[in-house]
Amino acid sequence: MRHPIHDDLHNALLAFDEEEVGRLTVASIEAGVDPLETIDVLTEVITVIGDRFGTGELWLPDLMRGARSMNRAMPLLQEEIRSRGGTPKFHGSVVIGTVFGDVHSIGLDLVATLLAAGGFNVRRLGVNVPADTFIDAVRTDQPDILGLSALLTTTAPQQKRIIQHLEEEGLREQVKVIVGGGAITQTFATEIGADGFAPNAHGAVDLAMNLVAT
Amino acid sequence: MTQRGFQRRVPPLEILTPEDVAAIKGATLDILKETGLTIEHNGALKLLEENDCIVDYETQRARFSEGIVEECLRRCPSTFRVKARHPDDDLVFGGNTVYFMSSPGMDTIDPSTWEPRRPTKDEYIDAVRVLDALENHHWFAGHAPYFGHEGVPEVMKITTSLALRLRHTTKFLGQGHANYSWKWDLRIAKAVGAEITIPAFQIASPLAMSHDTVECGFMALEAGLPAGVDTGPLFGATAPATLAGALAQYNAELIAGLVLIQLKRPYSRALVWGFPNALNMRSGEPAVGTIANSLFIVACNQIWRDYGVPLRNTASTYSKSKKIDFQNGFERAMPAMLSALSGASSVHLHGGMYGELSHSPIQSVLDDDIAGMIGRFIEGFDVNEETLALDLIHSVGPIPGQFLDTEHTQRLWQQDQYLQECADSLSYPEWIDRGKQDCIDYAQGRMNDILATHEVRQELSATESDEIADILAEAENFYIERGDIEAD
Questions:
Q1: Which end of chain B, N or C, is surrounded by fewer C-beta atoms within 10 Å?
Q2: pLDDT average, residue stretch B277-294
Q3: From the CA atom positions of chain A, what is the Rg in Å?
Q4: Which long-range contacts (CB under 8 A, 24 or more apart) does A39-44 make?
Q5: Which residue in A56, A110, A154 is closest to B158 by CB distance?
Q6: Burial B395-418 (b: 16+ CB within 10 A, else e)
């Protein structure tokens, strides 16, 4: 039997009402509702939103607003799990950034937001990130996935450079590298030795899910 | 002599009321004053601080004073000349002159499959030679025709391409930059006595400028070159989804670059352009080829004519089609016409396909017809005693009179027309007899003719070639030392 507040949360998330999702999440915690059950409800709705985007019923702004609403609730619920002595569960961890020489953030924001909403623990390194910063983050965070974004044809080679650095530092085997951006193709991704490429942000979530499952 | 381009003699297309223009210009000033830009360059911030702007070094944020914005806009020349490798290819930007230029692509297109792949060096040269030959292509955009070719290390592609273009064309060259390529490109241009224009101050929407781009801008200004300011907002992503708001922000970004130019080197020649696009709300990619982009561009041209700074239209004519087909035709021809009508100084057109992801010399040949038709249209037609031809009409009179065998027709019939090179205009029987050829077949034929016969207006001298080779070798060593290229 679902808690009544979960019906309200279901409707609020489906209406992309970020404020209401936040308020109801706090209310569910204060009412002593199991945070794992709340996460299940939210995941169920965000999956519906993703499916509706996939069928063309919803658009990118809808998807992003749904993800933002989801991301408003998740840290609160994860904190509640910790306070109960548990450990939040993620599908995997991701370090992501836009490569050096490229200050474009929209693709990065889209993918990072959707990955977080999809149940990944995401650390954003920002834009114009030097290769060494990516290497340091892989060494210290030990993420499952490293995401490299490059919009420009002129900066896409930085993705190759970072993969080469990972190999030189002996870190390549411990992380899956995914690449994306306006100028990136599957052919290019294969050429530079990336583990995966998705042509859009929504596809990046499926890609990440598949990579952590292998 | 210069490249004549086309002279717009028809009144410019305007879609904004004076009140709209004032509101957008006011919003632009408000953005510059209240929010300002993040500029990751302390030298630029200091320059702005010394000129009445409010600077926060910790956040690298600069807020612009209205006075300095107006003063710097006044300092921008409304018309100016740029020097190509041959004086007949010099350009004069501004006024009512409209130039058409090429647009670049990462890949070339195989016309038998329409699939993209990296061009070879020979294909790169062929594409340059085609553009050099086409009469209505007046200058090369940065990176055009391709972002490089096979067999060259990625970091060397921009600079090697410049060297190759200079060898095979004398037309004026725009030049992109990345990975400090400008260090070499400015010297190569100087070696052949040509100017190039670089998107020196390249804004990252919303409202940010990186260190590298400011460095490049200051170097271009020190070299005395015309400086470009470039930005690429995506409506609904890196700018408001509404065109009015996106336009206010776009103009603020371009003006911020102009302020830096005019403070660093007053009265410098400056050209502004951008890559404004709606966002594809399915994929998150730029939605090129939409009519919203043309609405934006036409309004933009109206406002920048008011500012008095030449504006080049970049994104207006890109198509999302992967083929040379009907979609490709209407998505590029309609916006190109609207750009030219509304007062663009230059219009991107020749060769670019699928955004900036591919380029085709066959498309370039077809685009030359689009440019020719548009250029002919914006030049209007003369109304005078001779063109009214009243005496002739009176003398010919009603049927059986006719005009075909008159001296007037024989002398003037082409004056108000543009005759396409690659359009099918045969009768059905002729068309069937000649193998049912279409415009793509004609364009391929014309391309082959050009490649078989065209010669560049002026070869590089041995001294120039040697100097370019030395600079390329120096550049290669620089990137080897940086670890960007593996030494042999």
A1: C
A2: 88
A3: 18
A4: A39/A74, A39/A77, A41/A2, A41/A6, A41/A9, A41/A10, A42/A9, A42/A13, A42/A70, A42/A73, A42/A74, A42/A77, A43/A119, A44/A10
A5: A154
A6: eeeeeeeeeeebebeeeeeeeeeb
Mutate to test the interface with A, among B40, B103, B106 (most CBs of A within 10 A): B106
Lowest mean pLDDT of A9-18, B28-37, B151-160, B279-288, name the range: B279-288
Examine residue B206 and say whether the peptide bond preceding it is cis (omega within 30 degrees of 0).
yes
The answer to whether A188 and A160 are in contact (CB under 8 A) is no
> Which amino acid is present at B168?
H
Q: How far is B283 from chain A (nearest CA, A)?
A: 6
Round the average pLDDT of chain B to a whole number and report it.
94
Whether the per-residue pLDDT at B488 is higher than 70: the answer is no
B113 three-state secondary structure: coil
CB B160 within 8 A of CB B199: no
**Residue A34: band (very low, low, confident or very high) from pLDDT cuts 50, 70, 90:** very high
Residue A17 backbone dihedrals phi, psi, to 5 degrees: -90, 90
Distances (CA, A) of B16 to B21, B166, B302, B337, B468: 6, 41, 8, 18, 48
Contacting residues of A for B147, CB less than 8 Å apart: 153-154
Share of chain B above pLDDT 90, in %: 85
Candidates A124, A146, A166; CA nearest to A208 is A146
A 10 A CB-CB count for A70 gives 24
Q: Does B38 touch chain A (CB under 8 A)?
A: no
Look at B282 and A182 and tell me if their CB atoms are within 8 Å. no
Q: Given pLDDT bands bounded at 50, 70 and 90, which one contains residue B487?
A: low
Whether B472 contacts B394, CB under 8 Å = no
On whether the CB atoms of residues B341 and B322 are closer than 8 A, the answer is no
Other C-beta atoms within 10 Å of A159: how many?
27
Nearest CA in chain A to B241: A61
To the nearest whole Å, the CA of B30 is away from the closest chain A CA by 24
Q: Which residues of B touch A103 (CB under 8 A)?
A: 204, 208, 210
Residues of A with CB under 8 A from a CB of B: 56, 59-61, 101, 103-107, 110, 127-128, 152-157, 160-161, 182-183, 199-201
| Interchain CB distance below 8 Å, A183 and B106 | yes
Give the nearest chain B residue to A53 (CA atoms).
Answer: B282
Measure A154 CA to nearest chain B CA, in Å.
Answer: 6
For position B357, what pLDDT does the model report? Answer: 85
Quick check: B355 contacting A, CB < 8 Å? yes
Mark yes or no for CB contact B282/A56 under 8 Å.
yes
Q: Is B281 on the interface with A (CB under 8 A)?
A: yes
Establish whether this prediction's ipTM goes over 0.90.
no
If 0-12 CB within 10 Å is exposed, 13-18 middle and 19+ buried, where does residue A134 land?
buried
- On the question of pLDDT at A164 being above 80, the answer is yes
Task: Report the gap between the CA of B256 and the closest CA in chain A (Å).
Answer: 17
> pLDDT per residue over B89-120, tens digit each?
999 999 999 999 999 998 999 989 999 999 99
List, in order, residues 6 or more apart from B161 with CB less than 8 Å away.
B124, B143, B146, B147, B148, B149
Report residue A59 as tokens: 């658009």
What's chain A's average pLDDT? 90
B403-414: average pLDDT = 95
Select from A57, A106, A191 the residue whose CB has the most chain B CBs within 10 Å, as the one to mutate to test that interface: A106
Closest-CA distance, B219 to chain A, in angstroms, reads 18
| Token pair listed for A141 | 């965070």
- Rounded-to-integer distance, Cα B82 and Cα B196, Å: 8
